[in-house]
Amino acid sequence: MKIAILPGDGIGTEIMAQALRVLNALELKFETEQALVGGAAYEAHGHPLPEATLKLAKDADAVLFGAVGDWKYDKLERALRPEQAILGLRKNLGLFANFRPAICYEQLTHASSLKPELVSGLDILLVRELTGDIYFGQPRGRRESPDGAFKGAEEAFDTMRYSRPEIERIAHVAFKAAQKRNKRVTSVDKANVLETFQFWRDVVTEVHAQYPDVELQHMYVDNAAMQLVKAPKSFDVIVTGNMFGDILSDEAAMLTGSIGMLPSASLNEAGRGLYEPSHGSAPDIAGKDLANPLATILSMAMMLRFSLNQPEAAGRVEAAVQQVLASGLRTADIWSAGTQRVGTRAMGDAVLAAITTKTITTKG
Ligand code: NAD
Fold first, then answer.
1. Is 135 among the residues known to form the active site?
2. Do 187 and 321 reside in the same domain of the chain?
3. Which listed site, 13, 96, 204, 216, has its alpha carbon 20 to 30 Å from 34?
4. Are 7 and 68 part of one and the same domain?
5. Quick one: which of 205, 238, 293, 231 has its CA closest to 99?
6. Is 174 helix (H, G, I), strand (E, B) or coil?
7. 285 in ligand 1 pocket by Cβ < 6 Å?
8. Mind listing the pLDDT tens digit for each residue in 279-303?
C-alpha cells in the first residue's frame, strides 16, 4: 500500500514532519512518497497541482495532506492560487464526503470559548458534501447586470446547485455514520429561502426512509449556527452542503478549543481518501515551532482507520495523543496556566515517546 505525502506550505511542512515521525514509529509496511503541492508547487513548477502530484495522489491508497496557502499568492489569478490544489484533488479523486469530528478532549474543556459544562464530553461528527454546491456550480463570473434595479452595473454571480444523486450519496454516508454513533442526524439547509435546499430537504427525507433506526431532524443553517454555540451537545451527526459545511465546521472546531486539534477525512465512493488537519497553513506562525501538530497526527490516525484498514495502529496513535494531553504538555494554541508549553517538535517527541511506550492501552 502506498501513501502520498503532500506537506504543502507554511506550517504544513512542520506538522507533516511530526506526523511522519509518528507514522514511521508504528513500523507498518507502507510505502510513502512525497510531492509538492500548493504554493511550493507553484514556485517549483508554475502550478499548485502539477500533473506528477495529481498522478501520485490518484495512484496512492491514501493521501496525507498538510496545508496550503499564503497571503503572498492572493494576487495570482484564481487557477494558480495554492488553495486550488485542494479543490483539484477533491474533484479529481471524487472526494465527496468530508468527515470532521469535533471532539472536546476532557483536558482541554477550558480552552473552548464556551463554558466547560457546555462542551465537556462534546463529540459531534460534521459530514460536509464536498464536490457540489455554489463552490462548483456553473455558470459563474462577472458581467454587466442584465436586469433589476442595478441594470447595466458591474456584477458577479455564482450558481448554487445540487443533483439528486449528489444529495442521496452524502445522505447515505451520514445515516450510516450515525448508525455507528448515537443514531441522530441533523440535516442543515436553508429550505425556507433556497430552491436548492428545499430539494436537499426533500431528498434527505426520502433517503431517511431506508434508515428507520436513525432519527432525522431538519434545521435551518442560521438556527444551526446558533444551536452550535448554545447547546452543542444536542448534536450527533450533522450533514450539510459544501458552503454551509465550510462555515459550520470551523464554528464546531472552535468549540473544542483549537483548530490545531481537529483532523478531517475526505472520502470517495471506494473509501479512498485524503486526510488533512482542519486548519490552514497559518502563515502567521509558520517556521516558528509554534504550530500544533496534533490535528495532523490525528488525521494520520483517521487514515490508518478508514483507508488502510489498521484500526489497532490508529487506536495506538489516538491513545498516545490522549496520554500526552493528560501529561500536561500543550502547544501555544491550547496552553493554559498550570500546563507546560512546548513547541511543534517537542509535541511530536512526546507523541513518539508515548507510541513507543509499552504501557499504552490500545482501543483499536
Ligand atoms: P488558518 O487555519 O491557517 O489560521 C487561522 C488561525 O489559526 C491563525 O491564527 C493560525 O495561527 C491558527 N492556527 C491554524 N492552525 C494552527 C495550528 N496547527 N496550531 C496553532 N495555531 C494554528 O486560516 P487562515 O489564516 O484563514 O488562512 C491562512 C492560509 O491558509 C490562507 O492562505 C488560506 O487560504 C489557507 N487555508 C488552507 C487550508 C487548507 O490547506 N486546507 C484551509 C484553510 C485555509
1. yes
2. no
3. 96
4. yes
5. 238
6. helix
7. yes
8. 999 999 999 999 999 999 999 999 9
Q: How far is the CA of 282 from the centre of ligand 1 (A)?
A: 4
Does any ligand 1 atom lie closer than 6 A to the CB of residue 7? no
User: Residue 117: how many CB atoms within 10 A of its CB?
Assistant: 9
On whether both 116 and 78 belong to a single domain, the answer is no
* CB of 222 closer than 6 angstroms to any ligand 1 atom: no
Predicted confidence (pLDDT) per residue in 303-316, tens digit: 999 899 999 999 99
Annotated catalytic residue 72: no
What does pTM read for this prediction?
0.87
Which of 247, 262, 277 is the last residue before a domain boundary? 262
Task: Kindly state the cell numbers that stand for 339.
Answer: 500546563
Q: Where are the beta strands (DSSP E) in 89-212?
A: 97-103, 123-129, 141-144, 154-157, 184-189
Ligand 1 center–CA 283 separation, angstroms: 7
Name the grid cell of 248: 459550520
Range of the domain at 344: 1-96+268-364
- From CA 207, how far away is CA 268, in angstroms rounded? 19
> Same structural domain for residues 246 and 283?
no
| Interatomic CA distance for residues 158 and 141, integer angstroms | 7
Domain CATH for 8: 3.40.718.10
Atom 11 in ligand 1: residue holding the nearest Cα: 282
